[in-house]
Write a structure and sequence with these properties.
71 residues, alpha+beta
């Protein structure tokens, strides 16, 4: 249902620090699902011009699946 609503609002492109966005998303996942994020490592991520909310949703689903299928 959330996916179907992605195009119902106008995207708000802005400069997004993907490193910070990944850290914020990991904190959310840690709080919600109690994943142990202490061992998480990532190469440096770029700064992009994108819709921060949509990009965070993408990070959330990618990271959630990564933890789900590796733990």
């Amino acid at each position: 249902l959330v996916y179907s609503r992605l195009n119902t609002r106008e995207p708000k492109p802005m400069t997004v620090d993907c490193n910070q966005l990944a850290r914020d998303t990991l904190a959310i996942l840690h709080q919600q699902k109690r994943y142990d994020i202490s061992d998480f490592e990532s190469d440096p991520l770029p700064t992009l011009t994108a819709d921060a909310a949509q990009l965070q949703r993408l990070f959330y689903y990618l990271l959630d699946n990564a933890f789900k299928f590796t733990t």
